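Board notes, transcribed. Complex of a protein with copper (II) ion.
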Amino acid sequence: MRAAGITNLRAALATASGFVVAAKTGAAFANGIGYSEPGQIGFQQPVTEVARDIQFFHNAILMPIITLISLFVLALLAYVVWKFNDKANPVPTKTTHNTLLEVAWTVIPVMILVIIAAYSFPLLTKELVIPNADVTVKVTGAQWHWSYAYPKDQGDFSFDSYLKDEKDIKPEAGDIRLLSVDNEAVVPVNKIVRLQITGADVIHSFIIQSFGVRVDAVPGRLNETWFKAEREGVYYGQCSKICGKDHAFMPIVFRVVSDEKYQAWLADSKKKFASAPSPTSLAATGPALSAQ
Ligand SMILES: [Cu+2]
């Protein structure tokens, strides 16, 4: 009963906040799934449970609380300026304590924090406890591209993914300037994908907003995260840690496809990338960089 109540409340709040976002962004809200449209306000369309929860938490919990507190403080300030200025109140009172007020302004913020924590902690747990994965992909950030490695059970191959040159961009084929890459990472739809993320040289940051995933790629450290995309499509992200001169030109592209298409892609890629050197070894990073 209680759970149903919470679900209804969540649905109602999510719908309400959705209307606000849709009203602000207009057509942009409906288009651009997987990337942001020029002029878009608000998040990209979520395609995982975690991304939906993050957006609900932001739109329906944090934003109303922040807005109400800001309006309340603004009203208090305006009241003080109007009521207690030098002209209206020439002789100030010497009052220094008010027990009721002091208890209230301690207890009420604590209650607000408890409400936020009640939504935030389960969400953090969902993000950090990685379920049994169907597919594991190792992602390595390097100056300035991403490398993807598929382990033995998926065919044991790896490849580099570079930004497509402006001259190779074909908008009719769905290419997007400054986002499309030569080799996309491919994963199956409705499967749990575990990402193992590291850096080859400096700290990069891996993000795909539609998946609700953001993890730093730190050299010498293997960070983990996961997602289960519920919709086929192409989802874009960009390196989100200033990592050098081409930081803005190392987009992340994941193509989510059906199981059959994924198996076919695995078979193709096994041949295509068979001789490709491992992206994480120093020997592989050197020539790849100097080739740029
Ligand atoms: Cu980077």
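The first strand starts at residue 135 and ends at 142. Strands lie at 135-142, 145-150, 157-161, 185-188, 193-199, 204-208, 213-217, 223-227, 233-238, 251-257.
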